[in-house]
């Protein structure tokens, strides 16, 4: 059923030691380690799309062998499981050796690597149990697939396996640990290499491995390039800067906040990776972060994501410098990040408004006043743009009661002031040409999602799953596949965060164990 290869392990040296005990791993990129079995694995979710990417048979999900492999309870020929070692800057500080602490790679199938998250202890678990609990695994699976269907580069998810095994977790680090059911997500990507893999090798002076890893990474995206040259490595960095800029612009355009943008959570393929305390802007707040650990400093809040991405890229540039030995191309690429991000953000925001990028750029007051309206009226970010795409704006006065009410209904304020909204609508209407008016609704709905995987919706699904009801989990998985289209049951899925969920556990801010 699975036809695994071992490309990564054949390219690079393994740690000479064996076993799961925590240790420093040097002059190697991985340690061989098998998943730890779990009790009574059950398939809870399965992505037919990802299975097709891997060339798996249509009925693969019904196979007991497949279920056991994806639970870490069985091995198949060709699979050489391993955990990689990397470092990283966490909250701006060098953290030293990190590594796959609860993820184990099974090997490659075709162009893709399969990785089990929650598969048990590795040498990089640092005295933790290497497990993932059901609630965090549901969040990881659903958001991986939701981001893909939103058109945002991301790791994918093949399966979600529930188990009878349990682990003790203190969800908010507040001294209230509980026994929770464990689960495993099979993550899929062409590569799980992170900035931190390169940082650790450079910090240790392991330049031969650094050079080999750069060549391997280049081969993933452009196998025809001569990877031995400094120019090729500089080109790799430039590509990552530009692609990361495009990624962050896409996050911002749908109000996504990653929550933990450490360098060890940044992908060399510029994909969204590691779904921990993520969230989506509901009440518009540029300083909002979903991460309880980040509540004081708000380093990883919504508005900071572009600057943090560039800072992280500068750490990667430092790591690659020994292979280039020239600062200028690195600086040029970091400048290109800024240019690419702002161009991408302007283009996406213009599309969300049904305007051309040129018109929006020439009228900065439109954006400035829009930010004021969204902030002052506590607007729900995605509901506002969806409502805007549906209202009539042909009248130059833009004061139709139904249109105003539809937009004001997106506000979390008890008594929202309509005056700034009315003023902005008039400014906005004056920027719309007749041709823009003609296809405004359809063009805007193509880029403004109707459905967003809001934390309170996911928490409802998690609560139901804990109670033994898996139907809501299946339902939300089906809904997230068509985020830009209306659905008959959208009264269930498309709504503001209810007041009782604003401060409910799992619905607003989450910890890194979430």
Main sheet characteristics: 6 strands, antiparallel
Overall geometric form: globular
- Mean pLDDT, to the nearest integer, reads 94
Question: Spans of 5+ residues with little confidence (pLDDT < 50)?
Answer: none
Strand percentage, roughly? 5-15%
- Give me the Rg, rounded: 23 Å
First CA to last CA: what distance? 33 Å
Structural class: alpha+beta
Q: Could you say how many structural domains there are in total? A: 3
Would you write up a description of this structure?
By secondary structure, this protein is α+β, with helices and mostly antiparallel strands. The chain folds into three domains: 7-189, no CATH class; 195-351; 355-431, no CATH class. 42% of the residues lie in helices and 12% in strands. It has 18 helices and twelve strands. The strands form four sheets. Strands 2, 6, 7, 8, 9 and 10 form a six-stranded antiparallel β-sheet that branches. Helix 4 (134-149) packs across helix 16, helix 7 (230-253) runs parallel beside helix 9 and helix 11 packs antiparallel against helix 14. It is globular, with a radius of gyration of 23 Å. The two termini are 33 Å apart.
């Amino acid at each position: 059923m699975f036809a695994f290869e071992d490309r990564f392990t054949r390219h690079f040296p393994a740690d000479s030691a064996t076993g799961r005990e925590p240790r420093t791993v040097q002059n190697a990129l991985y340690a061989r380690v098998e998943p730890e079995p779990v009790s009574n694995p059950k398939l809870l979710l399965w992505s037919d799309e990802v299975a097709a990417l891997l060339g798996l048979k249509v009925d693969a999900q019904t196979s007991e062998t497949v279920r056991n492999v994806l639970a870490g309870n069985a091995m198949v020929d060709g699979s050489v499981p391993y955990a990689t070692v990397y470092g990283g800057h966490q909250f701006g500080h060098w953290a030293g050796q990190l590594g796959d602490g609860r993820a184990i790679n099974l090997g490659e199938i075709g162009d893709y690597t399969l990785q089990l998250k929650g598969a048990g202890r590795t040498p990089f678990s640092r005295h933790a149990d290497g497990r993932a609990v059901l609630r965090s695994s549901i969040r990881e699976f659903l958001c991986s697939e939701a981001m893909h269907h939103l058109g945002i580069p991301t790791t994918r998810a093949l399966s979600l396996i529930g188990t009878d095994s349990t682990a003790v977790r203190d969800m908010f680090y507040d001294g209230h640990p509980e026994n929770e059911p464990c689960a495993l997500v099979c993550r899929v990507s062409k590569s799980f290499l992170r900035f931190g893999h390169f940082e650790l090798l450079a910090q240790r002076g392991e330049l031969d491995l650094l050079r080999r890893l750069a060549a391997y990474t280049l081969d993933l995206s452009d196998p025809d390039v001569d990877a031995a040259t400094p120019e090729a490595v500089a080109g790799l960095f430039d590509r990552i800067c530009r692609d990361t800029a495009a990624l962050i612009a896409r996050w911002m355009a749908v109000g996504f906040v990653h929550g933990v943008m450490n360098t060890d959570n940044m992908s060399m393929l510029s994909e969204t990776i590691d779904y921990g305390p993520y969230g989506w802007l509901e009440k518009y707040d540029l300083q909002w972060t979903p991460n309880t650990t980040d509540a004081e400093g708000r380093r990883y809040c919504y508005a900071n994501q572009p600057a943090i991405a560039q800072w992280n890229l500068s750490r990667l540039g430092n790591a690659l410098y020994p292979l280039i030995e020239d600062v200028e191309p690195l600086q040029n690429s970091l400048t290109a990040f800024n240019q690419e991000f702002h161009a991408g953000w302007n283009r996406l925001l213009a599309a969300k408004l049904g305007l051309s990028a040129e018109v929006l750029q020439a009228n900065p007051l439109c954006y400035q006043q829009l930010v004021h309206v969204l902030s002052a009226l506590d607007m729900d970010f995605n509901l506002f743009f969806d409502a805007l795409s549906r209202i009539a704006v042909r009248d130059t006065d833009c004061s139709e009661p139904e249109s105003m009410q539809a937009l004001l209904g997106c506000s979390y304020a008890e008594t929202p002031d309509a005056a700034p909204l009315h003023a902005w609508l008039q400014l906005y209407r004056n920027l719309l040409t007749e041709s823009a008016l003609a296809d405004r609704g359809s063009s805007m709905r193509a880029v403004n999602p109707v459905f967003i995987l809001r934390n309170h919706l996911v928490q409802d699904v998690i609560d139901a799953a804990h109670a033994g009801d898996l139907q809501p989990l299946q339902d939300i998985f089906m809904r997230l596949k068509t985020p830009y289209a209306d659905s008959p049951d959208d009264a269930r899925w498309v709504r503001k965060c209810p007041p009782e969920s604003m401060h409910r556990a799992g619905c607003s801010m989450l910890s890194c164990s979430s």
